[in-house]
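May I ask for a single protein's sequence together with how it folds?
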Amino acid sequence: MRKYMNIINRLLFGAVALAALSCTGNFETYNRNPDQPSTIDRDVWDYIKSMQYNVIPTVKNQYQIVENVSGGAYGRYFAYAKSTDAGWNTGMFAFYRIANDWANPPYEVPMTNIYSNWRAIKAELEEPEDDYRMALAQIIRVAAMQRVTDIQGPIPYRTMENNDDLTAPYQSQEAVYGFMLEDLDHAVNVLETYITLAGTDVVAEAASADYVYNGNLAKWIRFANSLKLRLAMRISNVSPDAERYAEEAVAHPYGVIESNADNASLDVSQTNDQNPLRWLVEDYSDVHAAAEIVTYMKSFDDPRLSKYFNPAVRDSEYHGSRVGAYSSSQWKDYYSLPKTNALDRLMWMNAAEVAFLKAEMAVNGWDVTGDAKTLYEEGIRLSFEQYQAENYTSYIAGTAAPTAYSDPRRANNYTPGTAYSVTVAWDGALSAEKQREKIYVLDGGKSLMLALSQDLSQNRPAEAREHVRRFHELFLLADKSAYNYYQDFAEKGFYNRLIAGNINQSLQVDSVVCNFDNYPYQAKTYARQVILRESNVTERSLVTVCRLVNATRSDDNPNGFTIEGFTIVENRDISTVER
């Protein structure tokens, strides 16, 4: 409060002095907003820059782990393009066995880089609680930490404010969400007060360090309110206060993001680098389009498909690659690649997402302007507008359902047809739960598209394939049918001959086809076996079938399956090459 009184006193003093002197050479001195940054504030703005770089990491290797191969894979937007036999079959997110050097960055990178700069800003400012620069830092912190807690669950939020140790006491996700909502409310109040006293919502001197809104504080307020709405909807099934938070956000005088002109996105040209996704696509060749997103978009005849992805080189058609399937760099031309430009902005939040959030409010019966159908269609319209796509009217009337996925490289490398029958066209007769399936999902940090919200059961096919793959590699977590093969091999001296003959053998799973139409689930595995002898190298084809039964998850069985009825249906030589 003392800060606000200082602003008022100085502004009043400037007015009195101007009236007394009429004309003065000190006009700029008397009329300068005392809260505007001067040259002594450059360190504060440098810290704010650094915070912006780490909401979605702009450093390409950090972006790859924190964003692309984790959320991009789990959200079924991006698939791995690197050869799995080159090391990408170990420690990767899509295979549900994450090595520490891959698992740690989504926590360590934002926690370290956001909080170190946040603490520096707080230390530099005389009265940080009432300073609009600290308010901006708070909003940026929430934008980053919301992503971290949604990945990690409990994190140190308040406990990291005066502690640079990543082992600071963790706080529950419920507590963290409460802190973030408090911080957003306080930040909005500080920015509103500044705008009122300064008489402007644009801070010219902040523009050089504000790579999201160029110093426009009104847009920062709308972004903060939109974050508050997002947080409210994330806890709508567990918190009795979620409705109040959401309604406060949309009813605020500054409102929420409703126009693409207010989208929160980072100008990557200010990082002296290009959009990090472009590095992964064009320079690293690490990324394919995922099967799910391409299949959905083709099923719905979505005009944005050509805005999101490039057609495959091999046939000029759009194809996605299955997340978690065996991959090879040699197959790059079979699949679509994400369409990127060097200076594409990094999207934090856009108007389309906010419209979908409000549509979900309407589905819940909460107080929001517009009905669910109107808000849902507005979300699609805004996305079409953002991507400059055409035929919006015909698209929202579409009644086609998602179709099965067909891999362009191999006829048996497929997934069963999706069980979803939800279409693009809004159907008011559907239950609220079915309507929510239409509403929103992020597409890898760029924008939003119509998609079906995922629950844990949708990851079971990927977990099943990984469980079967690991079984073939390690021969574990199966019933007696697998043990019988082991015992038979042992009795025939198979393992002794391997040792005596100095024979090495390796097994590479090519693909695992799972049928989830009936329970127990059926799985068929196609693999290659390489037997390395002193005199020759033999490659064999191995085809097996088995049943999958749900089991309790544990450290030894993270996917929660047991294999039954394991049977080898083919094990034959393909080729032998003399050494």
Remarks:
- Residues 1-41, 440-456 have pLDDT under 50 and may be disordered.
- The first strand starts at residue 78 and ends at 80.
- The first helix runs from residue 2 to 21.
- The radius of gyration is 28 Å.
